[in-house]
Each structure stands twice: as C-alpha cells, then as structure tokens.
C-alpha cells in the first residue's frame, strides 16, 4: 500500500473478525456488534464520525475472513494508516486487513455480485475444545457423498422459504444458489455456499438439512421435498452459528480488490 497521502470520497475496507463474543454485524443498543466497534475505532482514528455499510450482515456468533465495508471520507491519510491506525483502536477479535480507494459509485452491499460462506464441521466422536465457537460439531459419522447429492438438489434458483428464518425481512425468498458443495478434509468437513445473496439463517438452515442427510436420518431426496414445501417447519433445526464464516464477496474485477484467503480459518 502506498504511504502517500490520499484524499478520496470513498474507501473499501476488508475486515476479519471472530464473532463468537459479538452480537453480529449490525449496531446494537449494548454496543457489542462489529459495526459498533468499527465505528468507534474510526471515530478515534479520524476524529469525526464515519458511517459504515457492509457487504453482508452476519449474525451473532458468525465469523468473517472477508467482510467488505465502505466509508465516505474526505480525510487525507495514507492507505496503510487506514489499516494500522484503525486497528489500533479495535478489539483483538476484529481487524482491518486492507484498504482500497473505490469509485464514488461503489456500494459494499449493492455492488456485490456474489457472496460466499463456508461452514466448518468437526466430525469426530469427541468434541474439540480448541475449536469451541469456531466450528460446528457432529459426533455421528457423516456420509459426505450423501450430503453432496442433497446439496446438488438445492443448487440453482429457487424459492428458499423452507430455509429462511421467521424474522427474515427480505422482500423475496427467491435466491440463486450458484455453488453448494461438501468436502471432507480428515475430520473436518467444509460446506461451501455461493449465492447472489442469502436469506436470514439460510446457510445454517441448509447445513442443518445436510447434517440430517449425512447422519442417515433422511435420504438426499428429502431436501427436495423440503424445498418444494416452502415451509420452514418442514426442515431441520437451524445449525449452530459457530462454524459459519463469510469468506468472500465478489465484485467487478476492475476494482482490483485483494483476493480472498483460501486457507481454513483455523486448525482443529
């Protein structure tokens, strides 16, 4: 990053955070959200209030390795200062990883072409204390091939009413699930979901359904029945927030934002 002073209208910031002890992205009365902490840090760094807009409003307990936020500012600061300077005032669980100048038309939410979430499951008879709050846990053996067959039935553009929470405020339940894959890495299982956008609790509800299939409680075709029912009560319980990570937000490549890190967010 350049050390020269830059005066810009809009900056994009790349954030990582451990959401275990946080109340999600969106500002809360108790001030314990990611947005609250970031805006406090920006105020201390810049000396003026700076409003933040994010790419995806993660829930309480959900993590991010690639959250994108934009701010509007006319302040002259080196780009590196927006990283190191803001991080000075952030708690250890939240960090700015990069800062980029973006066009005035850029919007962290509405300019996003797709979002990617990874859900990590530890599939082991015994719980893993070091992964507490950072991965889901299933002690019964999971049939990854059956889970992948079920995932394929959910890929595409559908009405995902059966996989949205009762509190979901989205105007339409229709989403394009562009990629939905299940991969085993030893005792770790990664469920990857890429979509144009997600409904409230959609990924965790999808993962819960896959776990029902993986443990043999239901066969793969059951998820198609749940999808067609458009009824949340027909699905599996919402899975734990612990293993869910926002891992990438796709934008126009011309923006040249830094790439996402493909490494697992933890070692279990």
List the helices and strands and how they pair.
Layout: E1 5-7, E2 10-17, H1 34-46, E3 53-54, E4 63-72, E5 76-78, H2 79-87, E6 94-101, E7 114-123, E8 136-138, H3 144-154, E9 156-159, E10 174-185, E11 188-195, H4 202-214, H5 221-229, E12 244-250
Parallel strand pairs: 4-12, 7-8
Antiparallel strand pairs: 1-5, 2-4, 2-6, 3-4, 7-11, 7-12, 9-10, 10-11
Helix pairs in contact: 1-2, 3-4, 3-5
What is this entry, summarized?
With 268 residues, this protein is α+β, with helices and mostly antiparallel strands. Strands 2, 3, 4, 6, 7, 8, 9, 10, 11 and 12 form a ten-stranded mixed β-sheet that branches.
Q: Which percent range describes the beta-strand content?
A: 25-35%
Count of runs of 4 or more consecutive helical residues: 5
* Element pattern in H and E: EEHEEEHEEEHEEEHHE
CATH class of the largest domain: Alpha Beta
Q: How many β strands by DSSP?
A: 12
User: What fold name stands as the CATH topology of the largest domain?
Assistant: Alpha-Beta Plaits
Tell me the number of structural domains. Answer: 2
Radius of gyration: 19 Å
Q: Could you state the CATH homologous superfamily of the largest domain?
A: Pseudouridine synthase I, catalytic domain, C-terminal subdomain
End-to-end Cα distance, whole Å, is 33 Å
Query: What's the CATH architecture name of the largest domain?
Result: 2-Layer Sandwich
């Amino acid at each position: 990053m350049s050390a020269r002073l830059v005066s810009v209208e809009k900056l994009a910031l790349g954030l990582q955070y451990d959401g275990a002890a946080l109340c999600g992205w969106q500002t809360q009365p108790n001030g314990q959200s990611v947005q609250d902490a970031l805006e406090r840090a920006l105020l201390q760094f810049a000396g003026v209030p700076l409003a933040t807009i994010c790419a995806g409003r993660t829930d309480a307990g959900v993590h991010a390795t690639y959250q994108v936020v934009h701010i509007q500012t006319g302040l002259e600061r080196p780009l590196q200062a927006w990283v190191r300077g803001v991080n000075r005032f952030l708690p250890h669980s939240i960090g700015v990883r990069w800062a980029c100048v973006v066009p005035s038309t850029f919007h962290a939410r509405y300019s996003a072409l797709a979002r990617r979430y990874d859900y990590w499951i530890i599939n082991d008879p015994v719980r893993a204390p070091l992964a507490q709050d950072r991965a889901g846990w299933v002690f019964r053996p999971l049939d990854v091939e059956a889970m992948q067959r079920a995932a394929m039935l959910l890929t595409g553009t559908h009405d995902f009413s059966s996989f949205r929470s009762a509190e979901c405020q989205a105007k339409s339940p229709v989403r394009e699930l562009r990629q939905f894959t299940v991969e085993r890495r030893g005792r770790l299982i990664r469920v990857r979901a890429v979509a144009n956008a997600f409904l409230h609790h959609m990924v965790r509800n999808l993962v819960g359904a896959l776990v029902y299939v993986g443990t043999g409680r239901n066969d793969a075709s059951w998820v198609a029945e749940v999808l067609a029912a458009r009824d949340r009560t027909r699905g599996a319980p919402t899975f734990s927030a612990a293993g869910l990570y926002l891992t990438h937000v796709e934008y126009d490549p011309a923006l040249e934002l830094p790439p996402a890190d493909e490494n697992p967010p933890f070692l279990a």
